Amino acid sequence: MWDLEISKIIVEEFTEKLKKSLDVDVAIVGGGPSALAASYVLSKNGFNVIIFEEKNEPGGGTWGGGMLFNELVVEEDVEWFLEELDMKYKKTKGFISIDSVHFASALLYNSTKVGTKIFNNVFVEDVLMSKERINGVVINWAPVIRQRLHVDPITVKAKYVIDGTGHPASVVNMVIDRNLSIDLPLGKIREFPMNAKEGEKFVLENTKEILPGLLVMGMAAVSVGGGPRMGPIFGGMLKSGIKIANIIIENIDVEV
Ligand code: 48H
Ligand code: FE2
């Protein structure tokens, strides 16, 4: 009976996938462009990487381009990465312009192709911690959270957790809510008005490990560091993801 077999396949395969994802090298919270760049580099280097994305569609702020004009801009110094991901783009006025739907889908395709597992509709509601080190995340179905159902979550162990939640820096916020001190340059999470050039520099400088086991990248790094937003230019998001991947690659032998 086809109907029953289809159900069995889905349940068995998903369970298998989730079981393999309960103890990983890297758990990334949020499935935006920085997450997809980071996960691509990490997975390609043999790391076991998972992404939790609360929405049905991973990709974060990429799909809508600038003000729903579905084109976005990156700097020429990330051309090598677009090439590596086999993207189509146009060089214009000293920048690169790229169709935002193509950009999002190429990132998603390449990241998952090299082995990243993306769990969509999953919300990270807490972190797991021991001996002053963040060593995992606490997850629940996003619809459970949206419906405010009283359902307890489950945990996922990870050697490193990356906050890739964009503007709100949700994971760092959770950690602060737990009264753990994080050295925030401005004393609180805060973003400054638009300045594309400065913002693109700032995001890279502030991409780092901020507590043992917890790293920030992308717009979350800007909010945590207290810097300017940059609008619809996405090279910094890619470079931030690549930088965080390289930080982890250099440190993964850390005993947890
Ligand atoms: C699961 C979660 C949770 C949670 C949030 O915002 P993003 O696209 O992230 P980045 O940093 O890779 O890219 C930022 C870019 O899109 C952007 O906004 C830019 C460049 N703005 C400039 C400007 O001036 O505005 O993606 C974050 C993702 C989203 O898909 C959220 O749904 C998801 O994280 N998310 N997923 N559990 N607790 N919190
Ligand atoms: Fe944004």
From TrEMBL:
Q: Which cofactor does it need?
A: Fe(2+)
User: Which residues does the annotation say bind glycine?
Assistant: 229
Indicate yes or no for the key word Transmembrane.
Answer: no
Q: Which residues bind Fe cation?
A: 152, 167
* Entry keyword set: Iron, Metal-binding, NAD, Thiamine biosynthesis, Transferase
Top-level taxon of the source organism: Bacteria
The UniProt entry's coiled-coil ranges are none
Name of the top EC class for this enzyme: transferase
Q: Which reaction does it catalyse?
A: hydrogen sulfide + glycine + NAD(+) = ADP-5-ethyl-4-methylthiazole-2-carboxylate + nicotinamide + 3 H2O + H(+)
Q: So where does NAD(+) get bound?
A: 34, 53-54, 61, 124, 150-152, 170, 219
Q: Keyword Transferase, does the record have it? A: yes
InterPro entries for the chain: FAD/NAD-bd_sf, Thi4_fam, Thi4_prok
Q: Pathway it belongs to?
A: Cofactor biosynthesis; thiamine diphosphate biosynthesis
Signal sequence segment = none
**Enzyme Commission designation:** 2.4.2.59
Job of this protein: Involved in the biosynthesis of the thiazole moiety of thiamine. Catalyzes the conversion of NAD and glycine to adenosine diphosphate 5-(2-hydroxyethyl)-4-methylthiazole-2-carboxylate (ADT), an adenylated thiazole intermediate, using free sulfide as a source of sulfur.
Quaternary state and interactors? Homooctamer; tetramer of dimers.
User: What NCBIfam families does this protein's entry cite?
Assistant: sulfide-dependent adenosine diphosphate thiazole synthase
User: What's the family?
Assistant: Belongs to the THI4 family.
Protein name per UniProt: Thiamine thiazole synthase
Organism the protein comes from: Thermosipho affectus
